[in-house]
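tool=predict chain=A
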Amino acid sequence: MTYYFTPAPFPMRRWAPVQVSAPEYDFRLAVDVREEEDAYVLSALVPGLKAEDLNIQILEDVVTIEGAYAEDENEYLLAELPHGRFQRSLRLPVQLDANQADAKIKDGLLTLRIAKAESARPKTIKVAVK
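tool=predict ok
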């Protein structure tokens, strides 16, 4: 069996050619967000990056993840792997507690768990019977 590569009719330069709000970034990081009772859990694929390659900031209800992949000077027939800088900011529905945030990278998956602020957590009120 013979495989043929044909050049694309348009240049394929970046992994996810999505225009982000800041033009100095090369692509937009895809993120999954799920809600737990007392926290939010964000997941993102960051293959090949280490903890020191990422900058995560939490301010009130906004989470910002920044990072960069090393630029490669080689020329490729097909370039789909991520290259360059990225930033993703997400506004979550409630205030967050940055002091209770935990980030881990395992097998190229970034998992960020951010606790909701105490004022945003549901309160249980017991009714006194008289």
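Residues 10-21 have pLDDT under 50 and may be disordered. The chain has no helices and seven strands.
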